Amino acid sequence: MKPQQQSDRKLIFDDEGIKAFAIHLKKIRIREGYSQSQLAFESGLSLSQIARIETARINPTLSTVFALARTLNVQLSDLFDFELSPKEK
Hints:
- The protein is mostly helical.
- It has one domain (14-79): lambda repressor-like DNA-binding domains (434 Repressor (Amino-terminal Domain)).
- Helices cover 61% and strands 0% of the residues.
- It contains six helices and no strands.
- It has helices spanning 3-8, 15-31, 36-43, 47-54, 62-72, 76-79.
- Helix 3 (36-43) crosses helix 4 (47-54).
- The radius of gyration is 15 Å and the shape is globular.
- The mean pLDDT is 91.
């Protein structure tokens, strides 16, 4: 990759998608009977990390999402079963 191409790259942070995931994760957590503290403890994540994910302040990694799915005992597809609006052009 040429140096000028690297500078053209930008960090992708989809605010809408992160917010939709946050709301959906919280619904699943409550449905499955977990408090944030319990989910944090059982998944090996920090309580502050769970709180930041559920308030859409961070973009969780795939490894974090895998840990959440395993702890909540849900399919990965369940965690992503929400609607996104089409990208504006």
